[in-house]
Amino acid sequence: MKTKLEFKNQQVRDTLAVASHLIACYLSSRAGLKQLGILRTERTLQGDYAEWLVANLLNLKLSASTIEKHIDAMDVEGKTYQIKSRIVSSMSQSTSFDFRSSDLKFDFLIAVFFDEAFDILSVLRVPLETVIELSHTNAHKFSFRWNRACANDARVERLFWRDQNSSKITLE
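and the corresponding structure tokens:
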């Protein structure tokens, strides 16, 4: 019985060595982010990072259960928040925030937009009534669509908005 993987192709061996190093760095990074309290689950970095950012930005208390339906956080007044994030190339890119059903139980949707490097492009606060009004339903999901019309809707509050031509983030 072999106890060591042996690849005949040198390129495969080299790739495996680099991959092993990068995986070790990845696992170490995840462990460090857990120690900082940023990662709370085994899900993707994107979702946990967005929740941590918003909780600290708005002084929210994150839900004790990371699988509580529809509610990720609560403020001191008892208002509830669903926090979702997307990676986009620019704020002019259309995307959607999907829900399993239209039976939504939060007061506000917080939409966090990151670029490919996880730099914050925008943080938006949308009241539940606006989410419902601007959403679309199909057989499998309920979707709040981010597009030009939504971007121009006065009920969509821009908490942070980065000027696309600079690295400056502005508080709206």
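(Above: one complete record from the training split.) The chain is about 30% helix and 30% strand.
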